[in-house]
């Protein structure tokens, strides 16, 4: 078996490399002329794009923030859809999903730095556990409007996805919920600084 002609291996590599693309950083540099990896929270996610670009161009900040969310979500979705077209196993699909999120959070293009994984997690979850993800997305949107704290809203939405999927998709067609939990763990781990600030009442709101 040739390593570089094995379908699963090629999809694993593609998932990580595509997941690593820092769309937030690229968009902010290209259209706003700012480096978000050295400003704000230094994250490549939509929230930091919004915060940093908003300082000079509020209207552009919203557009770039939305574009970042969509592109970060599609990073995981597109690879999974291609893999499904090629008929790979459910276990392989979940491995692709995990690698997509890892790529975003630990980008090879940024020296293994990256974002928090929320949008990319949403992108892979919506393919693999769609109903639970829609519930989580609704919780995320409602909490964001009410609480106006991006990190807390994201975490609550994530919890809603995991809890919902536990009841709706028990086993995830791979005999275990571990892959779903692992993605959630990665996202929560990347949010530890935010969680500490939330507990201390120091987490900033997105207005």
Automatic annotation (TrEMBL):
Entry protein name: Glycerol-3-phosphate acyltransferase
Assembly and oligomerization: Probably interacts with PlsX.
Question: Could you tell me the keywords of this UniProt record?
Answer: Acyltransferase, Cell membrane, Lipid biosynthesis, Lipid metabolism, Membrane, Phospholipid biosynthesis, Phospholipid metabolism, Transferase, Transmembrane, Transmembrane helix
KW Nucleotide-binding (keyword) present: no
| Compartment list | Cell membrane
| Domain of life per record | Bacteria
Pathways involved = Lipid metabolism; phospholipid metabolism
A Gene Ontology BP annotation from the UniProt entry: phospholipid biosynthetic process
Q: How does it sit in the membrane?
A: Multi-pass membrane protein
From what organism does this protein derive? Arcobacter ellisii
Family statement drawn from the similarity comment of this UniProt entry: Belongs to the PlsY family.
Q: Which GO cellular component terms, listed alphabetically, does the Swiss-Prot or TrEMBL entry include?
A: plasma membrane
Give the E.C. number(s).
2.3.1.275
Q: Give the function comment from the record.
A: Catalyzes the transfer of an acyl group from acyl-phosphate (acyl-PO(4)) to glycerol-3-phosphate (G3P) to form lysophosphatidic acid (LPA). This enzyme utilizes acyl-phosphate as fatty acyl donor, but not acyl-CoA or acyl-ACP.
User: What Gene Ontology molecular-function terms does this entry list?
Assistant: acyl-phosphate glycerol-3-phosphate acyltransferase activity
* NCBIfam families cross-referenced by the UniProt entry: glycerol-3-phosphate 1-O-acyltransferase PlsY
Q: Which Pfam families match?
A: G3P_acyltransf
Reactions listed under catalytic activity: an acyl phosphate + sn-glycerol 3-phosphate = a 1-acyl-sn-glycero-3-phosphate + phosphate
What transmembrane ranges does the database entry give? 9-28, 64-86, 93-112, 124-143, 155-172, 178-199
């Amino acid at each position: 078996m040739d390593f570089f002609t094995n379908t699963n291996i090629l999809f694993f590599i593609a998932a990580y490399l595509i997941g690593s693309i820092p769309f937030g950083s690229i968009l902010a540099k290209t259209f706003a002329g700012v480096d978000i990896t050295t400003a704000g929270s230094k994250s490549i996610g939509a929230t930091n794009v919004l915060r940093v670009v908003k300082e000079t161009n509020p209207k552009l900040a919203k557009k770039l923030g939305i574009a970042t969310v969509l592109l970060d979500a599609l990073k995981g979705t597109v690879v999974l859809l291609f893999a499904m077209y090629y008929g790979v196993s459910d276990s392989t699909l979940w491995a692709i999903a995990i690698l997509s999120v890892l790529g975003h959070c630990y980008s090879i293009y940024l020296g293994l730095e990256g974002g928090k994984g929320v949008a990319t997690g949403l992108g892979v979850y919506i393919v693999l556990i769609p109903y639970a993800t829609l519930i989580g997305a609704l919780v995320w949107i409602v909490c964001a409007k009410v609480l106006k704290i991006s990190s807390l809203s994201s975490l609550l939405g994530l919890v809603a996805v995991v809890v919902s999927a536990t009841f709706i998709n028990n086993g995830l067609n791979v005999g275990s919920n571990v892959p779903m939990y692992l993605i959630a763990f990665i996202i929560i781990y990347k949010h530890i600084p935010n969680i500490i600030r939330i507990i201390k009442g120091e987490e900033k709101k997105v207005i």
